[in-house]
Amino acid sequence: MARRGWGWSVPAVLLVLMALGGRYASTTPRYALYHLGAAMQRHDVAEAERYFDVERIADTAADVIAADYLSRQPAPTTEAEANGRRLVVTLIKRRVRPQLIARVRAEIRRSVERAGVQPAAVALPVGVVAVLRAFHVARQGGDAWVTYQDPHEGPIRFRMRRQAGQPWRISEFDPEWVRRRAREEPIRIR
């Protein structure tokens, strides 16, 4: 009788471990990237956009653009000039943010529409094995920094965050990538 109990317990333990492993895997950034790639291959723009925090991406890109603009200006010599610079930063961010939101959404749409058909702006790998090989994920607290070598764009590094009730979402791109994209398609500040 003891042997019979042992014979059933091993498969039961294996099933529980597999279920727990599958549950854990579904809460990782790689799982979200897998689903993003699958949405792109299905040409599902709405589903793909779920994996991007468009507003946060625009906010962080606006910070980079404003900082770069100010770095080319003379340093303030008085407190009034410093206050004026802070005002200019606020105005720049307010001015470029809607353009950046529109650009991020257009880039997502363009990438999804071109996926699997012709060279896309960003080409994500599809399939579990491809996602495991292609992306380097480094956890930083509650966030993850993901590095990926895109065949068309070159190196891409981005931050992913997870909020309650949401999948992991891309929330920020590396400042160097933002600068490169801004040089390719300039943002109008004025």
Q: What's a concise summary of this model?
A:
It is built from seven helices and four strands, in the order ααααααββββα. The chain has 190 residues and is an alpha+beta fold.
Core attributes:
190 residues; alpha+beta; 4-stranded antiparallel beta sheet; 7 helices; 59% helix; 14% strand; elongated
SSE order and pairing:
Layout (H helix, E strand, L loop, with lengths): L1 H24 L3 H13 L3 H5 L4 H18 L7 H36 L13 H7 E6 L2 E8 L3 E8 L7 E5 L1 H10 L6
Antiparallel strand pairs: 1-2, 2-3, 3-4
Helix pairs in contact: 4-5, 4-7
Structure write-up:
The protein has 190 residues and is α+β, with helices and mostly antiparallel strands. The protein has one domain (2-184). Helix content is 59%, strand content 14%. The chain has 7 helices and 4 strands; from the N terminus they run ααααααββββα. The chain has helices spanning 2-25, 29-41, 45-49, 54-71, 79-114, 128-134, 175-184, and strands at residues 135-140, 143-150, 154-161, 169-173. It has a 4-stranded antiparallel β-sheet with strand order 1-2-3-4. Helix 4 crosses helix 5 (79-114) and helix 4 crosses helix 7 (175-184). The longest helix has 36 residues, at 79-114.
